[in-house]
Design a protein that fits this description.
heterodimer; A: about 250 residues; alpha+beta; Ubiquitin-like (UB roll); Fumarate Reductase Iron-sulfur Protein, Chain B, domain 2; five-stranded mixed beta sheet; two-stranded antiparallel sheet; about 35% helix; B: about 250 residues; mainly alpha; 3 helical TM bundles of succinate and fumarate reductases; elongated; binds iron/sulfur cluster; binds FE2/S2 (inorganic) cluster
Amino acid sequence: MNFTLKVWRQSGPDVKGSFETYQATGISEDMSFLEVLDVVNEDLIEQGIEPVAFDHDCREGICGSCGMMINGQAHGPGTRTATCQLHMRTFKDGDSITVEPWRAAAFTLVKDLTVNRSALDRIVESGGFISVSTGAAPEANLIPVPKVVADAAMDAAECIGCGACVAACPNGAAQLFTAAKMQHLNLLPQGQSERYQRAERMVETMEEFFGSCTNHGECQFACPKGISIDVIAYMNRDYMSAKVKNRKLSGQS
Amino acid sequence: MAQASPRSTVEAAVKPISRRPASSAPWPLNLYASAVGKKWVMAITGVIGMGFITMHMLGNLKIYLGAEELNHYAEGLRTFGAPFVPREGILWMLRSILVVALVLHVHAAFSLWSANRRARPVAYASQRDYIAANWASRTMKWTGPIILLFILMHLMDLTFGTWNKDFISGNVYHNVVALFTQLPKVIVYLIANIALGIHLWHGAWSLFQSMGVNNPYLNALRRVFATAFALAIVAGNVSFPIAVYLGIVS
Ligand code: SF4
Ligand code: FES
């Protein structure tokens, strides 16, 4: 298969970028999209041109680093796939494919297709954890968790922090990510003691860096893990409760 | 909790686009300062608006029962609660709730819209291929202002009567008929109601999400409700100008 790639090139955060057109020839339909970029980069290196910088690590859909906008869709046209899991058979031979980095105020561009996703980490460190005294792992069956709750928490815990939800959102909102990172803890018994602090802090950290949700629902289709916007509704509910409960508690000290 | 200051050049490269709500502010203000809080306010004020719109549409159906019925109903609104409250007392109470709800709804919408613009300063170059976001959700920023302008016009036409040449205060039936014998007005009202329907179709679904009313077993019903609600309101409202213009009501 042969493709024409229009790739965003920008050598640093403060310089002007532009699209460059490259030909990818002799591509197998079983290759992933990242492998096509590898092929293109090898060509570029041979021609003495700086290769295209893009983030990648696991190449099996679990690390969340390979985010890019392919033909106006986050992680390209596949459903529930990260860019590394996107096979070239999803495209037609001879297609022209436009590749851009994630665009959001919080995702400042580092180089070419690589963006700085550290704002997502700031959200997690503001509340996406459970404080426990570490030691030997406790007996797993000591705290009973209903099966449906465990399943719902696991669905939310699937988030790999790729940022596709932000990239796909017309508002550049990080609601799906934040809600997933919040709800996989808020649903479980272990997460209860910090539940409302977590809800308030994570939402407010998120709002410092990202846009806000107007319920387009675009994120859940972009998400490589198929996380549902149900978690956003749960987060909205927890945030409202948090506003009431945290005030009450602070009045008691 | 104040945001931790950046600890590395990587973190420092990312600048916040909004301020954190001041935790010292009183509860409702502190809540309203956050975007999630504003969505709650938009949902609640939206429900108030939907309640009003439903009653407004149902009440106006009285036009099909004749001038006396409709005018009697209109008078009933003014004397509601008598003799315990002064004439138009309850009416003005309800009106002020509506005005406050409208102001909050518009203010929240505007400030979310402007914050969301800041959240994506550089647009995508390729045509976005939206899957879920539909024309209703993406045109809220147009249907909203259209409805706002329409409300003002509607008040001038039928409440104050300033824009209605043949206005007789208190004779609602006559005023409506006088208004809708003019084709331009009929067309404007039809367009405005279609915008209203589109706005309601997204809003009546979206409010459940904003208020966290979510249950996997009932979620499909939220769309059904929004569709049925928007259709019912538009059908009712649109029927009045058409009926008058076609002479069914005269
Ligand atoms: S919620 Fe989905 S799209 Fe968003 S960061 Fe997590 S895995 Fe990526
Ligand atoms: S490279 Fe790890 S998710 Fe794609």
